[in-house]
Design a protein that fits this description.
binds 2-phosphoglycolic acid; gluconeogenesis; 2 domains; Aldolase_TIM; 8-stranded parallel barrel; 12 helices; metal ion binding
């Protein structure tokens, strides 16, 4: 289930009678204009670098730890080689640095410090030195952020001094922030302000050390304001900065320096910013405080995510107004000549036939998904409810279920942290149910995974995932006609996988292949899917 939609538009698309192919479209889904569509240079020589500047957030170590664990979970599994090739750094406040280093181990995410002292040691109460942060394993220090310049009065001379202290620590890199204020921008001073900040900030830095420095161009008017620079504005500024670097270090060295853009970067705008030839990454403030949005920003900056083909876009041929909060699990019954679906949190099962207006029946439980049940009786459904898996009949003649729900078995994972979510009857007639884990939204427990189960005809529920596979949501479950493959997606990470499907009892899913990652600038998340007319997974609703 997903929180993205508030209203559901039922769209009947490519109605394939043998497989029942329907796609749910969300009414207020935004479509991308041509301008928003990424048009990327496929490979940049400079390795993209995405940094998360946490500033004075979050309030406690518990919250910091939670964010770090979610980031770790997003980064340890399921990354494409191109996504792995993005350098990722987070900059938590000093008291959380050790925790970050600990929790992020094995994730590939580096840790940076937001500032260091102007001195190396001695009587400087409250200060933290470059050698201190390097000695615990910090890889980067951020210097010259506009908030430090404006609020704490740091001058270019101070910044330059700190930068040399950092370079004195072997292996320590620096992100040097520069950028003009709104007034300076209006007065056309962008070029001269950035030029001065770069020259003074890098004073005395040798060409040999320039590879340890990343420049972050952050127009002050874009920081924390939601007023992002256009990709074209960012490109102009980055060219100006690279020209200054070329003046000082020559073209070859200047060409190797990575220049990040910073200021209101989010999952929606990162792709178009990254499509600019001189934008080599992003320095992200607000959007780095949510694991999923930061992850999407990183994914959006990975070169490979740009070459994935988009799925074919479909549009509705028929709209049926209804009041559903979350319309899920649409299924067409050839026997009943009816479409069934659920409005999940309301516990409603809806029916639409070719002749009757849509009507609903109450299931009195949150409904994850439904499937058709083998029976001669109209309206027989299997229902994955919050408390149990039920068999029931939906009748057009009564306001309630014609015959009371029959409990087929307990629901899997009897915990508060997970609940049945998407499901689909496989090609052998067994009901496969994916679980939804609320951990990524509310910290209810430690287990950050959710399983996938198959209800056999004898009522026995078996687990299909081997223990090494961790997912938080199994959505978009579907089977091609061959019956020996299965698709599903993990909604929080927006990745769709194919597997070899174990037809025999007791088997596990194997041979996992990542087949598509939703680009960062595509809104929503995959939630329900069915195979299309070609019997391949080529329609996805979100
Ligand atoms: P923002 O901050 O992304 O919240 O605008 C950027 C920064 O200050 O580095």
């Amino acid at each position: 289930m997903k929180p993205f939609c508030t209203a559901v538009l039922l769209a009947i698309l490519l109605c394939d009678y043998s497989t029942g192919a329907f796609v749910l479209h969300v009414k207020n889904r935004r479509s991308l204009t041509n301008h928003q569509r990424p048009s990327f240079a496929l490979f940049k020589a400079r390795r993209p670098v995405i940094a998360g500047n946490w500033k004075l957030n979050p309030k406690t170590i518990a919250e910091a730890s939670q964010l770090l664990k979610l980031l770790h979970a997003n980064f340890v599994n399921h990354r494409t080689p191109a996504q792995l090739d993005v350098e990722v750094v987070v900059f938590p406040p000093f008291p959380f640095l050790l925790e970050a280093l600990l929790v992020l181990q094995g994730s590939g995410i580096k840790v940076g410090a937001q500032n260091v002292a102007l001195q190396t040691s001695g009587a400087y109460t409250g200060e933290v030195s470059a050698s201190m942060v390097r000695s615990i394993g910090v890889d980067y220090v951020m210097l010259g952020h506009s908030e430090r310049r404006a609020i704490f009065g740091e001058s270019d001379v101070d910044i330059n001094k700190k930068l040399h202290l950092c370079l004195a620590e072997p292996g320590l890199g620096v992100i040097l922030c520069v950028g003009e204020t709104e007034d300076e921008y209006e007065s056309k001073l962008l070029a001269s302000v950035c030029d001065v900040q770069i020259r003074k900030g890098l004073k005395g830095v040798s060409i040999n050390d320039i590879s340890r420095i990343i420049i972050a161009y952050e127009p002050v008017w874009a920081i924390g304001t939601g007023k992002v620079a256009t990709p074209e504005q960012a490109q102009v500024a980055h060219t100006v900065i690279r020209k200054t670097l070329a003046d000082v270090y020559g073209y070859q060295a200047a060409d190797s320096v990575r220049i990040q853009y910073g200021g209101s970067v989010n999952p929606e705008n990162v792709d178009s910013l990254m499509s600019m030839p001189d934008v080599d990454g992003a320095l992200v403030g607000g959007a780095s405080l949510t694991a999923d949005s930061f992850t999407r920003i990183v994914d959006g900056s990975a070169t490979m995510s740009r070459v994935y083909a988009r799925p074919k876009e479909l549009s509705a041929q028929l709209e049926v107004p209804c009041t559903n909060v979350l319309g899920e699990s649409p299924i067409w019954s050839v026997r009943d000549q009816a479409l069934y679906w659920v409005s999940a949190p309301e516990g409603e099962i809806w029916t639409l036939t070719r002749t009757e207006p849509a009507y609903r029946r109450l299931a009195s439980t949150v409904v994850g998904c439904i499937g058709l049940m083998e029976s001669n009786q109209r309206g027989s459904l299997v229902v994955a409810g919050e408390k149990a898996i039920l068999g029931l009949f939906v009748s057009p003649d009564t306001t309630d279920f014609a015959s009371g729900p029959r409990i087929l078995c307990d629901r899997p994972e009897l915990t508060d942290v997970t609940r049945p979510n998407d499901g689909r009857v496989d090609r052998q007639g067994r009901f496969v149910i994916g679980m939804y884990n609320t951990y990524h939204r509310t910290p209810l427990g430690e287990a950050n995974i959710a399983g996938l189960y198959r209800l056999n005809k004898d009522g026995y529920l078996e687990s299909l995932l081997d223990e090494s596979m961790d997912y938080r949501v199994s959505n978009c479950i579907c089977f091609p006609a061959s019956g020996d493959k299965m698709y599903f997606c993990d909604t929080p990470t927006r990745k769709i996988y194919s597997f070899d499907y174990p037809v025999e009892f007791g088997g596990k899913l194997s041979n996992r292949k990542l087949i598509w990652t939703m680009p960062a600038n595509m809104p929503g998340g995959p939630d329900g899917a069915q195979v299309g007319e070609s019997r391949a997974l080529n329609e996805i609703g979100w």
